[in-house]
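Reopening this ticket.

The earlier resolution said the output was attached, but the attachment link was broken on my side. Pasting everything inline this time so it's all in one place.
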Amino acid sequence: MKRSRHALFLMALAAGSLGAQGRPADPDVASRQGNAPVPAGWEVRLDRANANRPDIRFETMGSGMHVTAGPAAIYWNPQSRVSGTYAVQATFTQMKAPQHAEAYGLIWGGNDLNQPSQNYLYFVIRKDGKFLVRHRAGAETHDVVPWTEHTAIVKEGADGKQENTLKVEVTETSSRLFANGTLIREIPRQGMTGTTDGIVGFRVNHNLDVHVGGFTLERSAVRPR
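Inline output:
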């Protein structure tokens, strides 16, 4: 009898484990809002090749752009290629609370964005007031600055909304990262991997509802201090 009970327990445990493996822990949720024209000149690349592009709604809204995702992706306009010194800025508004702490923010130094050899840097925040700087090269990523909390980043409110203006200033010697006008990190050029010359744009992780306003690029706008 004891052996029989033990065998039944092991069978139930195995069945539970297999079931868990077959269920994605955090699947992409389709935007379910129908098709909308992508803002003129903009392109989209999904993180996962097997993700479903129609599950993202990316559209012009008011004077800005709006992303309802769906899969994680990057967004850029090929005309936003820049080199040398420059500054890119946008105001991001998370419209409702995600199930998990998902990130969004700016990308810079983008090259080969439609190719397997994609290469870019990104500066993103999440609802708990933390930021991350990461470099992607092909399928590989590594942290330049790991998740770090900063008081300048406005956290998600009780209504699920979160609004922050993010800015990257590239000088001859460093990349300076700002949140709401406050310098939160300066990364010396010799401490960076990947070039800062290239396309700028933004990134929105999966299952987020984010409005992007005031996206601006100032070419040769900054000088080393």
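Reporter confirms the inline version is readable. Residues 2-22 form the longest helix (21 residues). The mean pLDDT is 86.
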